[in-house]
Amino acid sequence: MDETRAVKMSKYLSKHLRHQPRLIGIAPDPGGWVEIEALINAATANGFGFTREELDHVVAVNDKRRFEIEGTRIRASQGHSIEVDLGLPQAVPPPYLYHGTVARNLNAIRAEGIRPMDRNDVHLSADRQTATRVGARRGRPVVLAVEAGAMHHDGYVFRVSSNGVWLTGAVPPGYLRLPGPR
């Protein structure tokens, strides 16, 4: 499978497993799982056919490990805007986690903190490099340090997805180390 096809499939899967499953007629269970055969059939019926082998390839080579397969089922690892319970246990975060963004978002973040926006959780990275890549998707990246250890001490809940993304409901501005005004 060529890289262009793999990227197109990954985006298709993200859209329909995270955000709009009903658009192609699939219904994830409460944990976000969908039967692979049902997904392939629905995708084919909606003009985007692929094989199980192609699906396995996209899941295996995805650098962000966005999807997980368990037996005959698949789901997105995190990033949902639909209601799902990924069943992730609470976890104790490291003292600092990181969030990649762009400069145009800093005023809102200074005022309101980091909010999940259209997702169920705020996504945080364990290292600056990953946060830099995340921020770079929308322009020149700005990396914010999140005082995750202090948040946890103060009662905020953290979970970590199977692909290493840290999740929490929101990050209040008082727990952020922001760059100064430009």
Automatic annotation (TrEMBL):
Phosphoprotein keyword on record: no
Transmembrane segments: none
Enzyme Commission numbers on file: 2.7.1.-
Annotated Pfam families: PTS_2-RNA (PF01885)
SUPFAM superfamilies registered for this protein in UniProt: ADP-ribosylation (SSF56399)
Domain of life: Bacteria
GO terms under biological process: tRNA splicing, via endonucleolytic cleavage and ligation
GO MF term set: NAD+ poly-ADP-ribosyltransferase activity; tRNA 2'-phosphotransferase activity
Keywords tagged on the record: NAD, Transferase
The keyword DNA damage is assigned to this record: no
Its job: Removes the 2'-phosphate from RNA via an intermediate in which the phosphate is ADP-ribosylated by NAD followed by a presumed transesterification to release the RNA and generate ADP-ribose 1''-2''-cyclic phosphate (APPR>P). May function as an ADP-ribosylase.
Family: Belongs to the KptA/TPT1 family.
UniProt xrefs under NCBIfam families: PRK00819.1-4
Name of protein: Probable RNA 2'-phosphotransferase
Organism: Streptomyces pluripotens
